[in-house]
Amino acid sequence: MAEHFPTLSQTAIVATALKVLLWPAYKSTDFEVHRNWLALTHSLPMKEWYFEKTSEWTLDYPPFFAYFEWLLSQAAKYADVAMLQVNNLNYDSWQTVYFQRTTVIVTELVLLYALYLFIQTSTLASKKQAHAAALAIFLSPGLLIIDHIHFQYNGAMYGLLILSVILARKQSGLLASGLVFATLLCLKHIYSYLAPAYVVFLLRTYCMGPKSIFHIKFFNCIKLGLGIAGILGLAFGPFAYYDQILQVLSRLFPFARGLCHAYWAPNMWALYSFADRVLIYAAPYLKLPVDSRAIDSVTRGLVGDTSFAVLPEITPRMTFLLTLASQIPSLIKLFFQPTWDNFVATLTLCGYASFLWGWHVHEKAILLVIIPFGLIALKDRRYLGAFRPLAVAGHVSLFPLLFTANEFPIKVVYTVFWLITVLFAFDRLAHAPDQPRVFLLDRFSILYIAVAIPLIAYCSLVHQLVFGAKYEFLPLMFISTYSAVGVVLSWIGFSVVFVKS
Amino acid sequence: MAPPSSHRPRKKRAGASSPAIGTTIIDSSTKRESPAFPLAAFFWPAKGHPVSQWVILPCILMIAFLFRWATSLWGYSGLQNPPMHGDFEAQRHWMELTTNLPVTHWYFHDLQWWGLDYPPLTAYHSWILGFIGAAINPEWFALYRSRGLDALDLKIFMRATVVVSEYLIYVPAAVQIVRRLAKHQSINPWDFSIAVAAILLQPATILIDHGHFQYNTVMNGFVLASMASMVAGRPLWSCVYFVAALGFKQMALFFAPAVAAYLAGICFFPKVKPLRLVGIAIITVLSFVVLFLPLVLGTAFDTHRNIKLPSSAVLPPLLSTLPVEVSPNAFYYPYLVQLVQAIHRIFPFARGLFEDKVANVWCAIHSSGLHKLNNYPSDLLSKAALALTLTSIMPPCLLIFFKPRKELIPLAFATTAWGFFMCSYQVHEKNVLLPLLPMTVLLATDTGMKPSTRAWVGFANVLACWTLFPLLVRDELRVPYFVLTFLWAYLMGLPPTSLDIYLTPANQGGPALFTKIVHLPIYLAMIAWHVVEAFVLPPTNKPDLWVVANVCLGAAGFGMCYLWCLWRLVEESGILGNARKTTDAVKKTQ
């Protein structure tokens, strides 16, 4: 069997070298969030975990993540005991930084292993493509920016997601796939956005016979049900025992937040807000009523803020219904054609739907789309056509996460490097499609990518020179509107490809 | 920027599958080709179906940039280390003084606080950077008030100036030298890319310039440009670039004998070309004139404005030792004072034989306790140093003079620079970057990536980083040191990450037994040293014991590098009548 170079491990070694060098880089409040969780899981009894509020960064991840932090804290005490004190707010000795940054790098091995399995389980004909996709995912600028600079554990989480997706490739792995996904949900509940695809796929392939949907495999249903119940029991059992389930849920789902996050994630609501902003100026000519309280609200998405001046308000229920509605067509297709490729495509579309229509979506959630899509972007050129604007838009939309001068060159150069190498390599590796293409996304994406350069230059440099600290929302609005256009168009393009194939 | 390589006529020899340079190995049983070391693996996708240099080169430059910028996030020399701080403060201070003071004060201003002691090009460079920086934030370079400043935005600005200077000078020059060598020796574009990446990721350069903080790459870039011009057959340009290198840092003198010998050599061999000799002489003199011209013009302006020297100024002692009596009223007196003071500052004859702890002959002899040198008068020592240096550089210079062949240039440069580093007077541990430069360029020659050469180039680089370790620890650069050194060793397939090179049989291009006997114990000793240094305290009466051990081992290893370069130079020049080599070389020069 021919080996492909550079191998996954070679790439991982070089990438790790860069990640270690980035240890002293900027770290967001998420660093303190995770330090606080280390401290509180280590020093408090379990029944106080979801009540503790010394720090404003209370525990708002599901219990498995708390267990994970507890595990890490067992090692953390050898690095620096002081980081494990709940009252030691904003503590960041170099031992703490080195330790926490190291845990991110080490836990990313899960992703590496999942990608290794992905290559191993690919057919011989598509191994080269799988190899390229695996490298692209491992080197994703999203993970570098969010995990290794901003600070989070997405590498491990997406590793589990991919592991679960890969397990679903074989009939024998379906149960394990479902259980791994359940575990993932108990680590970080954002992945529940992808749950509909899992439900449909497992229901159809594991709980029903391949020939008829009326041929129900009861034994499989019981195994899956018991397995999921067991995992949920392990996670939430202790808190149910202490009668804290409502408290835990209130921490996990804080509905008091606004529609848009402080930075607008590049989704439909960013376009909606942008349209609203434009309409404020157009309203007098169109004779539309304007809500004067909303005009001054620059930082939208804060609790209790009036969000829209001209357009109608959006409620959480509406976003929920819209999300579900936009997921349904692909779910139906998956139900009738439950292949693995369709499963991954549906996962991607579920990610798209929840990202585009969801309530209080964070821009980091774009990885929910990019990473599953990465697995199938090389299926043929039509998929790649939809992937290109997403790759550009998704990563550019992460730029506002890092606003410090020191990290600016890193995020830009790394992302440009990744886009050049990945898009160039993908372009060579993607096959021509079986069916004729219907969408002219290729032409569009060249134009779209070209616009990114002046946009980034304006937002990071020109704006400051011209306006100074005034109109700070303007660059953010441009970036998220620009990115939203890309994400939306790639969503439409991909939906068309998926439905037609 | 030169046109892309696709404009070159294709050569039959440069088939993409030819493993001549040693970047690939072919499995003897399956006949399958695979990369010989990880760096080659990263270029594998571009093999077979070539990718335009316009895609590959920017990618290499971006990766090189990322590692540089990430290193620059760490500490620097003198960070929060009053009263004197370190090289960072020195460079910042020069920007402060050149932008705020009249030109005549540059070499006289408060010499106790990092007085300017580099040649004029450094001063002009500082002036430009200081000018730009002051436009961003005048406080960074405010006279006196800005001393010892360590604000984060200042650090970012200073780090950015290093990167920009490097990308304007060193990087194009490195690409040029590799391109010229590739053209001269018919190396295919794929191997060319690998060589560029290997040279740009060289750890010692990144650690010193982007970690410790200096602008060595500006000088090294001019040296590379000078070498590239020689290989390209443009000796006059090589003079200009070399004067620029000398004008930026006097350490470029390490290469001066080799440059002079080669340039003289091409005027006499294979046939005498007096016009070329005259041209070289004129251009060199003109370049020096241009180099000092701004200083002279500034002096004229200050004389015109009647600006006096600072009250604390002491006239250079050199001035009184001039053979002719100079009247202070002569019109040329101020110019003479400036030039003599610049030279006095640049060549500090009054300093010691070696500075701090450096892995050369003198420091090793002295600090190992073999023979204490501080009992000798310093002029005797400097004479001894001069004699030993001359002895060590004589062979390579004579060789390159009598055989001025392009493919010998990197070896001749490396041998001469090693000779200087090992034997000369007033050497810093950072000066090891100079011999490393041409030594690393060997990777771009037609046997450069073969295990026998790669072993030595790698050995010199790893050893050099290791001798810099005590310095880097003081700058809080321990982590970048380990990361960058390991990374480069890994990419080039060197110990401690891989023993592949040393397991290659000699008949397949593997290193000779002698190489193994020298390298492997030293690699082991370096690892052992790190373990001891990390976990064992030195005895109280010998607090410097670990550093001394480092210096002695380093000196031994560098001595071996000198000998190897000299041996290779002798071998390649063909004076021993080595049949295979000479026929090869003849073929190449045709």
UniProtKB/TrEMBL annotation, chain A:
Q: What class of enzyme is it?
A: transferase
Query: Which biological process terms from the Gene Ontology are attached to this UniProt entry?
Result: protein N-linked glycosylation
Record's bilayer topology term: Multi-pass membrane protein
Which locations, inside or outside the cell, does it occupy?
A: Endoplasmic reticulum membrane
> What are the protein's UniProt keywords?
Endoplasmic reticulum, Glycosyltransferase, Membrane, Transferase, Transmembrane, Transmembrane helix
GO MF term set: dolichyl pyrophosphate Glc1Man9GlcNAc2 alpha-1,3-glucosyltransferase activity
Question: Which EC numbers does the record give?
Answer: 2.4.1.-
Q: Name one GO cellular component term.
A: endoplasmic reticulum membrane
Q: Which reaction does it catalyse?
A: an alpha-D-Glc-(1->3)-alpha-D-Man-(1->2)-alpha-D-Man-(1->2)-alpha-D-Man-(1->3)-[alpha-D-Man-(1->2)-alpha-D-Man-(1->3)-[alpha-D-Man-(1->2)-alpha-D-Man-(1->6)]-alpha-D-Man-(1->6)]-beta-D-Man-(1->4)-beta-D-GlcNAc-(1->4)-alpha-D-GlcNAc-diphospho-di-trans,poly-cis-dolichol + a di-trans,poly-cis-dolichyl beta-D-glucosyl phosphate = an alpha-D-Glc-(1->3)-alpha-D-Glc-(1->3)-alpha-D-Man-(1->2)-alpha-D-Man-(1->2)-alpha-D-Man-(1->3)-[alpha-D-Man-(1->2)-alpha-D-Man-(1->3)-[alpha-D-Man-(1->2)-alpha-D-Man-(1->6)]-alpha-D-Man-(1->6)]-beta-D-Man-(1->4)-beta-D-GlcNAc-(1->4)-alpha-D-GlcNAc-diphospho-di-trans,poly-cis-dolichol + a di-trans,poly-cis-dolichyl phosphate + H(+)
InterPro entries listed in its UniProt record: Glyco_trans_ALG6/ALG8
Pathway noted in the entry: Protein modification; protein glycosylation
Q: Which residues are listed as membrane-spanning?
A: 98-119, 131-153, 173-203, 224-242, 356-378, 385-402, 408-426, 446-467, 473-499
Q: Which family, according to UniProt?
A: Belongs to the ALG6/ALG8 glucosyltransferase family.
> Its biological function?
Dolichyl pyrophosphate Glc1Man9GlcNAc2 alpha-1,3-glucosyltransferase that operates in the biosynthetic pathway of dolichol-linked oligosaccharides, the glycan precursors employed in protein asparagine (N)-glycosylation. The assembly of dolichol-linked oligosaccharides begins on the cytosolic side of the endoplasmic reticulum membrane and finishes in its lumen. The sequential addition of sugars to dolichol pyrophosphate produces dolichol-linked oligosaccharides containing fourteen sugars, including two GlcNAcs, nine mannoses and three glucoses.
Query: What is the name listed in the Swiss-Prot or TrEMBL entry for this protein?
Result: Alpha-1,3-glucosyltransferase
TrEMBL record, chain B:
Indicate where this protein is primarily found: endoplasmic reticulum
An annotated Gene Ontology molecular function = dolichyl pyrophosphate Man9GlcNAc2 alpha-1,3-glucosyltransferase activity
**EC identifiers of the protein:** 2.4.1.-
Q: What PANTHER family does this protein's entry cite?
A: DOLICHYL GLYCOSYLTRANSFERASE, DOLICHYL PYROPHOSPHATE MAN9GLCNAC2 ALPHA-1,3-GLUCOSYLTRANSFERASE
Instruction: Region Disordered: list its residue ranges.
Output: 1-25
What does the UniProt entry say about where the protein is found? Endoplasmic reticulum membrane
Question: Which pathway is this protein assigned to?
Answer: Protein modification; protein glycosylation
The organism's place on the tree of life at top rank: Eukaryota
Q: Where are the transmembrane segments?
A: 54-76, 124-144, 156-178, 190-209, 221-244, 250-270, 277-301, 380-401, 408-427, 455-472, 479-497, 517-538, 545-570
Give any Gene Ontology cellular component: endoplasmic reticulum membrane
How does it sit in the bilayer?
A: Multi-pass membrane protein
Q: Which family does it belong to?
A: Belongs to the ALG6/ALG8 glucosyltransferase family.
* UniProt name for this protein: Alpha-1,3-glucosyltransferase
What are the entry keywords? Endoplasmic reticulum, Glycosyltransferase, Membrane, Transferase, Transmembrane, Transmembrane helix
